[in-house]
Amino acid sequence: MCPVFSGPQNTALSAGGNKALRSALQGAASKQGNLPVTIDLSRIEALTFDVGGTVFDWQSTIINAVTDLAAAKETAVDAQAFARTWRAAMFDHLVAMNSGNAEIMNADGMHRQALDGMDEAFAELALSPDEKDDLTRAWHHMPAWPGVPEAIAALRQRYVVSILSILSVPILVGSSRTAGIDWDLILSCEFLPAYKPEPDSYQGAARLLALEPGQVMMVAAHPFDLRGARAAGLATANLQPNLSEPSEFLPPESEPGEFDIEAEDFADLVRQLCP
């Protein structure tokens, strides 16, 4: 049993995307309500969490950082469009990297390189190299959604709970400290055989945990991530996202019954995983 936990309800936001990810990360049909848990939870030993958008609020973090920078430079910029464009550009590189068509680098490198390609679109900011470096470090201090630290603490009473993320170690450690979240393990794909959603990333995480893939459950608010985990043999838990990203970017919708668990929020996830 996990401790009783009741958290706040999710609030949907929106974020933008691009065509490259629409072809690389295909979405599905419609969101559903909870289904009865049919998976044998006694087999699950560890939970691996996606964190960008699932646990941490990347969008508000970047919007605030860009807004502050624009104010300091006494100029105006569409900070939300900047944040969306930046995230999409990073995922463009990730998709190309996973297919062998881009230089291998961690998420800090992808974020920093993406900024160099945004100079023309956001010329009003006229970012210097030092300003780009500083802005890239904003990703190291993302807050968690309300109630997440308490939910993770409750789940750790029963399971080994780890991050499994495409983000870099400095991002994961810094944001976890910012949010006050303690994990049993932090796994960045930069130290695994491949980046998500390639099967080797999920299977590599299971090996590091000394578990079979079927003893690990991937938890995420992005169905493309869960589809990759399922194909690699992991169990899956789909969270309704606080940060809803459109289908052409990170497909947010799932088929009814597609994943082992459908949770409305983190409190619901705790209830289902700790019956």
Topology (elements, then pairings):
Layout: E1 13-14, H1 19-24, E2 46-49, H2 58-72, H3 79-98, H4 107-116, H5 129-136, H6 148-155, E3 160-165, H7 169-179, E4 185-188, H8 199-208, E5 216-220, H9 223-231, E6 235-239, E7 243-244, E8 261-263, H10 266-273
Parallel strand pairs: 1-7, 2-3, 2-5, 3-4, 5-6, 6-8
Helix pairs in contact: 2-3, 3-4, 6-10
Compose a concise summary of this entry.
This protein has helices at 19-24, 58-72, 79-98, 107-116, 129-136, 148-155, 169-179, 199-208, 223-231, 266-273, and strands at residues 13-14, 46-49, 160-165, 185-188, 216-220, 235-239, 243-244, 261-263. The chain is built from 10 helices and 8 strands.
How would you characterize this protein structure?
The protein is of the alpha/beta class and 275 residues long. The chain has two domains: 13-57 and 142-273, 3-Layer(aba) Sandwich (Rossmann fold); 59-141, DNA polymerase, domain 1. It is built from ten helices and eight strands. The strands form two sheets. It has a six-stranded parallel sheet with strand order 4-3-2-5-6-8, sandwiched between helices. α9 (223-231) links the parallel β5 and β6. It is globular, with a radius of gyration of 18 Å. The N and C termini lie close together (7 Å).
Properties at a glance:
275 residues; Rossmann fold; DNA polymerase, domain 1; 6-stranded parallel sheet; two-stranded parallel sheet
Number of strands: 8
CATH domain fold name of the largest domain: Rossmann fold
Helix content: 25-40%
Terminal Cα separation, in Å?
7 Å
Our Rg estimate from Cα atoms comes to: 18 Å
